[in-house]
């Protein structure tokens, strides 16, 4: 039996769900987790991350403000008070890349077009994606080889596309998720950026 949870069972029926169906199923399963389960998962994830050498050696770390049942990476800040943390800011122009803005741990007042809190450029210092040491990426589904399915807008793929041209450059990319977001296999698109590893509340998947 695989250790992926409910949504991947759809694949064992022989009928392959489309990306859209998979997104719907997994997002719904994630939203149903109780507040208690969410807190436990977040604590377990952060304990696991804190042991990863990539996280230990990183000084400038991008993470995200969780929404829609996503696992919460923010307790990492308390574990590493001497590291610098950044949140992504959506690009103003369509189809361009995200910036990362310094985040001291307080709740930003500004909300982007999806209602996600973001620090404000001009008030928080910005860092280019290339200059970060490590980024924790939200995702909707992943597979054990490190393939990632996101929300479908391509923000992370576009922002880290430079890594395809210069392999080994830029930050380590670490997908983070609840264990129930693991599926047996995801198709890889030409623009998908490979993740260094995926960490869940249950385990770490290293693909390279
Ligand atoms: N917490 C978090 N922050 C993130 C992402 C993410 O996945 N999670 N992103 C990852 O790229 C970027 C934002 N991408 C997003 C893409 C779609 C939706 C979303 O809610 N879409 C709605 C439709 C909304 C609309 O059409 O206006 C939906 O699918 O229900 C949210 C964020 C940057 N910040
Ligand atoms: N490097 C890139 N350059 C141009 N367009 C891109 C690039 N990467 C992705 N896209 C576009 O973004 C769209 C969404 O991609 P995809 O469905 O893989 O997003 P996602 O990884 O699920 O979303 P996100 O990264 O926002 O969480 C694709 O249709 C593709 O056209």
Automatic annotation (TrEMBL):
UniProt-listed InterPro entries: FTHF_cligase, FTHF_cligase-like_sf, NagB/RpiA_transferase-like
EC number: 6.3.3.2
Pfam families in alphabetical order: 5-FTHF_cyc-lig (PF01812)
Cofactor section: Mg(2+)
SUPFAM superfamilies xref list: NagB/RpiA/CoA transferase-like
EC category: ligase
Region (Disordered): 1-22
Origin superkingdom: Bacteria
GO molecular function: 5-formyltetrahydrofolate cyclo-ligase activity
Family, per entry: Belongs to the 5-formyltetrahydrofolate cyclo-ligase family.
Cross-referenced PANTHER family: 5-FORMYLTETRAHYDROFOLATE CYCLO-LIGASE (PTHR23407:SF1), ATPASE INHIBITOR/5-FORMYLTETRAHYDROFOLATE CYCLO-LIGASE (PTHR23407)
Protein name, as recorded: 5-formyltetrahydrofolate cyclo-ligase
Source organism of this protein record: Microbulbifer salipaludis
